[in-house]
Amino acid sequence: MITLKNKKILLLGLGLHGGGAATARWLHSHGAKLIVSDIKKSAALRVSLDKLSKLKGIQYVLGKHRAQDVEWCDYVVYNPGVSNESKSLRLARQLKKPIYNEASLFFDRCAAPVIAVTGTRGKSTTASLIVKMCQEKNPRTILAGNIKTTFMLDIVDRAKKDDLVVLELSSWQLEGMDIVKAAPHIAVITNLYPDHLNRYKNLTNYYCSKKEIFRHQNKGHYIVLNDEDKVLRKWQKEVCSRTYVFSKKTHKGHGAFIKNGKIIFKSATTKNSPSLEGRGPGGRLENAVVSVKDVKLKGEHNLENALAAITAAKIYGVGNTAIKKVLKSELILEGRQQIIAKKKGVTFVNDTTATTPIACIAALKRFGNLNKKNIILIAGGADKNLGYSDWAKQVKKYCKQVYLFVGDASQKQKKALSSMSNLSAGHNNMQLAVSLACANAKKGDIILLSPGAASFNLWQHEFERGEDFVRATLSSRGLN
């Protein structure tokens, strides 16, 4: 366990999401001598700074990062907004300063077993389902990580060995795992799609960052992989932990799949395995867990999320009845295909966390009607070096009208939709975009905020964009 008390720590990146403030507060509580540095100035960071205003002894360096602070510190802690290739981190490596992030600090100290979930899409939904399922077996199950609800360091000191922690981990958080040689007891990778190419040199680098979730696993650990993902199928050969897979198709491995309208879990039990409802060492068991019809979450992507969650929960030893209870109940996550209102037969959906084309496509397929173009799409924003040709094909299938915000991603989207007549681009006001959508909406239509792009050109983060959409929706008028 690394020493924190009286150590000189440079925290790079305070940020606006709350994670930087949570990390600073935690480091301060453990007696660190702390410098907090951020390239943003104090006015932009006011919300985060206010959270730390009562803490004494923290030095702030705002508007820039300084080499002298890297030279001063015993080690560096950096937050997700700071690129792994930033000048400060490169200097820290040259000076052989240990570099940590929230995830490495967490795994260095966490006494509880951990189920960790990563992937491009479905992390939050899958992690939330796993928590609800595992709480049926162990009420002391905690959700934390990249998800908005709870930061990892807020719970690490109180997590005991009899607890269970379920973490949602981004690629940025996983980058810090190697320094502590950490691994979750059960690792889940939902899928891999192009994303964050504004941060990573190429797609291979982005995908490889996800490997950190299992890099230090051993034969006593478990990995759960999507068997329909070509890249993850190849990765099955690289892992040394016990491999389980999930798929909407029947597969030969251990894990969850669909057969005759039922979700089946197939296990191989050994004397060292946790309770998997098997019948003895070396035994095999195919067990019908739940009917597909019982899964409350709609959409093919959510069916995959459910399969991933079932696999992890069964490895942990959760019974079928408990799993069925969770899958039959409503799961609402802020900004993730969240139905926020229905007015005069028009449904409003907040999908602000859809920051990639593939995420938007998932929403189009869930809410769209091929026989009647029923979606009015509000999209666009900042680019992450992603392509929009496949996205445009689906938009043309499902959407009767599209409104695009300003942004470099919007320019790509506009070009990809050049043959579409009902396209309005260049918007920078959510209230106006929603008002225009309402003016064109009829009973049975869906007004869908699913940008397929990042938010930081107009908003501080995607949740602020979603909150803006909710406010505009609640005050909207002019529906037919």
Short structural summary:
The chain is α/β, with parallel strands linked by helices. The protein contains 16 helices and 20 strands. The strands form three sheets. A nine-stranded mixed beta sheet has the order 7-8-6-9-10-11-12-13-14.
Please provide a written account of the structure.
With 480 residues, this protein is α/β, with parallel strands linked by helices. The protein folds into 3 domains: 8-100, Rossmann fold (3-Layer(aba) Sandwich); 104-327, Mur-like, catalytic domain (UDP-N-acetylmuramoyl-L-alanine:D-glutamate ligase), CATH 3.40.1190.10; 338-474, Mur ligase, C-terminal domain (Protein-Tyrosine Phosphatase, Chain A), CATH 3.90.190.20. 31% of the residues lie in helices and 21% in strands. It contains 16 helices and 20 strands. The chain has helices spanning 19-29, 46-51, 67-72, 87-94, 102-109, 123-137, 171-174, 203-210, 230-235, 300-316, 320-327, 357-367, 389-398, 408-416, 430-440, 462-474, and strands spanning 8-12, 33-38, 59-62, 75-78, 99-100, 114-118, 141-145, 164-168, 186-189, 222-226, 242-246, 255-259, 262-268, 284-291, 338-343, 346-350, 375-379, 399-405, 423-427, 446-449. The strands form 3 sheets. The chain has a 9-stranded mixed sheet with strand order 7-8-6-9-10-11-12-13-14. A 6-stranded mixed sheet has the order 15-16-20-17-18-19, with helices on both faces. A 5-stranded parallel sheet has the order 3-2-1-4-5. Strand 10, helix 9 (230-235) and strand 11 (242-246) form a beta-alpha-beta unit. Helix 6 packs parallel to helix 10 (300-316) and helix 15 (430-440) crosses helix 16 (462-474). The longest helix has 17 residues, at 300-316. It starts with 7 loop residues before the first strand and ends in a 6-residue tail after the last helix. The relative contact order is 0.08. Residues 270-283 have low confidence and may be disordered.
